[in-house]
Amino acid sequence: MKYNVIFMAAAVATRTSMAPTNSVTLAIPTKTMFDEGVPTDQPVVGDYTGALRPQIHFSPPTEFMNDPNGMFVDVNGTYHLYYQYNPTATVAGNQHWGHATSTDLYHWVNQKIAIFATEDSQIFSGSCVIDTNNTSGFFPGQDNGVVAIYTLNTATAQTQEIAWSVDGGYTFEKYEGNPVLALDPPSSQFRDPKVVRYDDHWVMVLAYAQEFAIGIFTSPDLKSWTHASNFSHHGLLGLQYECPNLVEMPVEGGDPMWVMAISINPGAPLGGSITEYFPGEFNGTHFTAIDAAARLTDFSKDNYAGQFFYGIPPTEEQIYIGWASNWEYSQAVPTGQLEGWRSSMTVPRRTHIANVTRVGINMMDMPYNIEAVLDAPLATNSSLGNGTVFVDYSSLNSGAIWFQVNVTGLPNNTATPSRQGTLNFTFSASSTRESVSGGFYFGGDNPFWMNRGDIYGFGNTDPFFTDKFSVGNPINANGTFTLDGIIDRSILEAFIDNGRSVGTMTFFPQGMLDTMVLRTNGLNDGVEVSVAVWGLKSAWAEEANDEGVVEGNVTMSSNNPTMDRRHAKLY
Ligand SMILES: *[C@@H]1O[C@H](CO)[C@@H](O)[C@H](O)[C@H]1NC(C)=O
Ligand SMILES: *[C@@H]1O[C@H](CO)[C@@H](O)[C@H](O)[C@H]1NC(C)=O
Ligand SMILES: *[C@@H]1O[C@H](CO)[C@@H](O)[C@H](O)[C@H]1NC(C)=O
Ligand SMILES: *[C@@H]1O[C@H](CO)[C@@H](O)[C@H](O)[C@H]1NC(C)=O
Ligand SMILES: *[C@@H]1O[C@H](CO)[C@@H](O)[C@H](O)[C@H]1NC(C)=O
Ligand SMILES: *[C@@H]1O[C@H](CO)[C@@H](O)[C@H](O)[C@H]1NC(C)=O
Ligand SMILES: *[C@@H]1O[C@H](CO)[C@@H](O)[C@H](O)[C@H]1NC(C)=O
Ligand SMILES: *[C@@H]1O[C@H](CO)[C@@H](O)[C@H](O)[C@H]1NC(C)=O
Ligand SMILES: *[C@@H]1O[C@H](CO)[C@@H](O)[C@H](O)[C@H]1NC(C)=O
Ligand SMILES: *[C@@H]1O[C@H](CO)[C@@H](O)[C@H](O)[C@H]1NC(C)=O
Ligand SMILES: *[C@@H]1O[C@H](CO)[C@@H](O)[C@H](O)[C@H]1NC(C)=O
Ligand SMILES: *[C@@H]1O[C@H](CO)[C@@H](O)[C@H](O)[C@H]1NC(C)=O
């Protein structure tokens, strides 16, 4: 967690004056533990029917969400997602840990808020681990105890605290010995602990945000922490380092490799927030990057503060989820005024390392198995060549689509005639003529581009809502190119060449997008194009009650039986 209150107030005020149609709340709320109307023992109720609400992405039931936190998967395959949550306003402030669970990473069940802000302190970002061996001593007779490690933010300091859960992560108790890590003199720029297990000890990575250092700390018991080393001044600095992650993941044709991810904000090359990562070696106390390069998770602007799930073996693809927004405009986007919520997460992404053409070592990010929400195919063509695929999906209630394009038989770059042709796609609203689009050039430097400039609902007067993004994506030596895309009402994610390059782009149309056109032209002889377009189900609609409202659940646990409140009247 990150936002600086002074910066935020200025940003909100600026946005209001520039975009008069956006009536953004100017006051930064200061709230106490028992906020009026915020339930403490049952989930916040949400309406997910809004025209801008993503249907297969996680977004909060109401109000403002930012960073994913505490992500872990338990032994039974339940994924826990906590998140920076202000349950009382559609801007940041009053930070709690919201909570949701899923077994397929697309159908999320909103749970009660897990950790609450108090009158004078907020719960900023952090992580969770499963203390299988009771190293903390919190869990007699239990091998599924959960410990949350987070930053407590007060007016004067950021310190690291822990809280423990005997019921699998649904209810937390704050440790009476908190804080477990604090600086002397106190620092207000010391945050976002991410803890992992390394052999016989725990390892925390933590940002000294404005000193551009990631501290690596070790602990036998999650309570006492020792500074082991710093990883500092690597890659893009921006103006702050935040939300570090350390994770070990598989490598195509090799042994698993460690990756250090660092989110920076403000000061990303495209403005605002972005995440960079460093593949490397970790020996339990020191991280060493393989080279001096800064690599980015995304080439566009809407993926920040991503976190990897705790509990996935390093020989399996790791899974991460990012916050699909950017601090430059996250508190101004029109979902707040129109639908009472702001920000969604990215789709879950499975990751590994590969050696890609020209660049070398690179993290590959693909959508986690989307079968759980696959509906019917809307169009397929396995021999498109130079051609067009047209899809009218106005009758698809979810408004969410997955599409895949495989191109094979591309000549190498010294062929005569030279490699050429283009592939473009456009999603448009027949009611307003708005559109989002993207495309790829098979010739030249192989740029892939995305454009949200033809959407009228938001951004045309906002200097920070950059409207076009592109990346160079060299053709593979075997002459193939692939594109996987997910569009979900107000977010588009493009995964190029098996996730070598990824773009995440939010947009806020006035009309519902309902028409897709995908077109290829000028391809070399012998190039083959195979396209499939699928409708996606609405995960949230499946969960809604008769009034169309998603109530969430209070999941019962063997260690802490609680009444099933799913059908209780909540307000
Ligand atoms: C996993 O499922 C078993 C059997 O239902 C249950 O006893 C156990 O408490 C569950 N563990 C967790 C961490 O939820
Ligand atoms: C638990 O203990 C086993 C055996 O000592 C060890 O291999 C493992 O890393 C420990 N795991 C955790 C999460 O503490
Ligand atoms: C867990 O730790 C506590 C405190 O050290 C201890 O009392 C308890 O016996 C431990 N339980 C197990 C099963 O190791
Ligand atoms: C690690 O970095 C922090 C922040 O710059 C600094 O205060 C600390 O002295 C460094 N520790 C070591 C051992 O270099
Ligand atoms: C880890 O790497 C550091 C820096 O190279 C080195 O000083 C330290 O001894 C290494 N630790 C182990 C356990 O190998
Ligand atoms: C990546 O592949 C290239 C081409 O095959 C090779 O030259 C290079 O050594 C590889 N790099 C790594 C880090 O494996
Ligand atoms: C696939 O596209 C080609 C032209 O690009 C067209 O001739 C053919 O009919 C299409 N096939 C199907 C099944 O639509
Ligand atoms: C072509 O190469 C890419 C990159 O190495 C690889 O991901 C893909 O599977 C290969 N495709 C075929 C058909 O061999
Ligand atoms: C794709 O878009 C580019 C840029 O607007 C344009 O030059 C190209 O002709 C388009 N290609 C197709 C197949 O529509
Ligand atoms: C695509 O069109 C180009 C001319 O623009 C032509 O040379 C080529 O043969 C066509 N490719 C296919 C696969 O039909
Ligand atoms: C693209 O290629 C992959 C891997 O071979 C295959 O699983 C998928 O079905 C193909 N998709 C299309 C649209 O042809
Ligand atoms: C809601 O909680 C109850 C009790 O723990 C559980 O049986 C049920 O499966 C949960 N429902 C959902 C949708 O998670």
Automatic annotation (TrEMBL):
InterPro entries the record matches: ConA-like_dom_sf (IPR013320), Glyco_hydro_32 (IPR001362), Glyco_hydro_32_AS (IPR018053), Glyco_hydro_32_C (IPR013189), Glyco_hydro_32_N (IPR013148), Glyco_hydro_beta-prop_sf (IPR023296)
Q: Which keywords appear in this protein's UniProt record, sorted alphabetically? A: Glycosidase, Hydrolase
One GO location term (cellular component): fungal-type vacuole
Q: Which CDD domains match?
A: GH32_Inu-like
A biological-process GO annotation:
sucrose catabolic process
Q: Does the keyword Transmembrane apply?
A: no
Molecular-function GO term, any one: sucrose alpha-glucosidase activity
Q: Which PROSITE patterns match?
A: GLYCOSYL_HYDROL_F32
Q: Which domain of life is it from?
A: Eukaryota
Positions of the Glycosyl hydrolase family 32 C-terminal domain: 446-534
The record's section on SMART domains has:
Glyco_32
Q: Which residues form the Glycosyl hydrolase family 32 N-terminal domain?
A: 57-355
UniProt family annotation: Belongs to the glycosyl hydrolase 32 family.
Its recorded name reads Invertase 4
Q: Which organism is it from?
A: Amylocarpus encephaloides
Its lineage opens with:
Eukaryota, Fungi, Dikarya, Ascomycota, Pezizomycotina
